[in-house]
Design a protein that fits this description.
By secondary structure, this protein is mainly alpha-helical. It has ten helices and two strands; from the N terminus they run αββααααααααα. The chain has a two-stranded antiparallel ribbon. Helix 2 packs antiparallel against helix 3 and helix 2 packs antiparallel against helix 8.
Length: 276
């Protein structure tokens, strides 16, 4: 049987909870995150309305099931996070491979762009651009992806600088292979596995950024729920119904922590492979 270290076991446990929330809960009978029942508003966890309907995690200010709302918000966050990771992965790996392989002025320009982006506070940049183009799920995913490529680019460039002088690359050059062929056939397959580490870490960071923007009203817009927006709305009812703000905060923590532990597990495995 395979042995799990602490990081792997923690990641599996936390992500399994998220799988149940995001995938299993929407399949349950009666799932309806938009159904309102003003007569059953602000029910506590485990409460029932006058019809005897049971709510495991209570209801919000409009009488909507908190469990259903959390599940839909998790789906929205996961969709935005995965989309943003794919965008940033494509841009970062492409630019990193080009910079590391060709070097010279090309590398200076690409790394200069990376340094320029890092010099601008990311949150302020996202707030400014979102305020101009308007908040939406599509815009949010694209903006988060376009502002997250630097980490992928730096790692891809560093690995390419090391690999470009290896024997199998030099041998391919002497046989007349083109730069495009070398990048696609030799460099890309060696770089992509390392992107799992970067991607698992960046996914958690993107989820936090999405929740932050939604908390400020610049992310996901009603009636579509978001954990950040649910925290923002629930903080007005902390004395009366604290679960409105606490539950989405816990869900956000579990998802982000799960991917952070997953990133640590990938890093540990990579270190063991290098030692071996």
């Amino acid at each position: 049987m395979p042995k799990f270290n602490l990081s792997q076991a923690t990641a599996v446990t936390l992500l399994a909870i998220m799988v149940v929330l995001i995938i299993i809960v929407p399949l349950l009978p009666g799932y309806d995150p938009y159904k309102q029942d003003l007569g059953g508003a602000l029910l506590p966890m485990g409460g029932e309305n006058f019809r005897g309907d049971f709510y495991l995690l209570g209801t919000d200010t409009l009488g909507r099931d908190m469990l259903d709302r959390l599940a839909l918000a998790g789906q929205v966050s996961a969709l935005i996070g995965l989309s943003a990771v794919m965008v940033s992965l494509f841009i970062g790996v492409t630019l990193g491979l080009i910079a590391g392989y060709f070097r010279g002025p090309v590398e200076n320009v690409i790394m200069g762009l990376a340094d320029l982006q890092l010099s601008i506070p990311r949150v302020l940049l996202l707030i400014a651009v979102t305020a101009i183009i308007g908040p939406s799920v599509t815009n949010l995913a694209l903006l988060l992806g376009l502002t997250s490529w630097v980490a992928y680019g730096r790692v891809a460039r560093g690995m390419t600088l090391s690999l470009r002088e290896r024997e199998f690359i030099l041998s391919a050059r002497t046989q007349g292979s083109t730069a495009t062929w070398n990048i696609r056939k030799h460099l890309l397959p060696n770089v992509l596995p390392q992107m799992l580490i970067v991607g698992s870490y960046e996914f958690g960071m993107i989820i936090v950024m999405e929740a932050s923007l939604s908390y400020l009203g610049l992310g996901v817009q009603p009636p579509l729920p978001s954990w950040g927006m649910m925290v923002s709305e629930g903080q007005n009812y902390l004395a009366l119904a604290p679960h409105l703000a606490i539950l989405p905060s816990i869900a956000l923590f579990i998802l982000v922590a799960g991917f952070q532990f997953l990133s640590q597990a990938f890093t540990r495995e990579n270190e063991l492979e290098l030692v071996a």
